[in-house]
Design brief:
With about 200 residues, the chain is mainly β. It has helices at about 1-15, 35-40, and strands at about 20-35, 45-60, 60-85, 85-110, 115-135, 135-160, 160-175, 180-195.
Length: about 200
């Protein structure tokens, strides 16, 4: 119950800070790794969230930003891990944290109706941190990626000024530093507050 009150209070305070003609979204995010990300951790991420803000520049176009966090985790019973030309074997715990910070724009179809769809695109950066724990050793890689994120979603009006949202997003962070390209898609559910 405490969490619900804190989230509601945070939402009201956040919404009051933004100008008229804006959308604020808080979403729970479930992630699925693809490509190299899936090779490192094939498990579904049940730990994630996003915060979105869009200012309406026209009645059906919103521009703003997105911030988020997704954590992927997998326990490997007995596996081999290579790090700096050395091969290690044993039980592993793998973690992959991703923090996108993007500028975003959305196009809304039938804005203002009870059910409306939208499509969006985000560009920016994504910080990725990979940890592999093996016995007493921790192997860590991190990088700042240039990131691209398309999105498709639907808004369902629940009450005046409040909508439920269901969206899917695909994050692609281009190869950077020691990490290959990091890619995953998410299914998001949450609330959108409009002013």
């Amino acid at each position: 119950m405490k969490r619900i009150i804190i989230i509601a209070l945070f939402s009201v305070l956040t919404l009051s800070a933004f100008p008229q003609g804006s959308l604020v979204a808080l979403q729970y995010s479930v992630g699925f790794g693809t490509a190299d990300m899936h090779d490192y951790i094939s498990s579904t991420s049940w730990r994630g969230f996003t915060f979105d803000y869009r200012g309406m520049v026209q009645s059906n176009i919103g521009v703003g930003f997105e911030m988020g966090w997704n954590v992927f985790y997998k326990e490997m019973p007995d596996d081999v891990y290579e790090y700096e030309r050395v091969t290690y074997a044993g039980k592993q715990w793998r973690y992959s944290n991703h923090f996108p910070a993007l500028l975003a724009a959305d196009y809304y179809i039938r804005q203002g109706e009870m059910i409306s769809a939208y499509a969006g695109l985000g560009l920016g950066v994504m910080y990725s941190l990979q940890n592999t724990d093996l016995g007493t050793y921790t192997f860590e890689k991190d990088a700042w990626h240039f990131a691209l994120r398309p999105e498709l979603g639907v808004l369902i009006e629940a009450a005046p000024g409040t909508s439920l949202t269901l969206a899917t997003k695909y994050y692609y962070g281009f190869k950077a530093g020691d990490l290959p390209a990091q890619a995953y898609f998410t299914v998001n559910v949450g609330f959108v507050f409009t002013r």
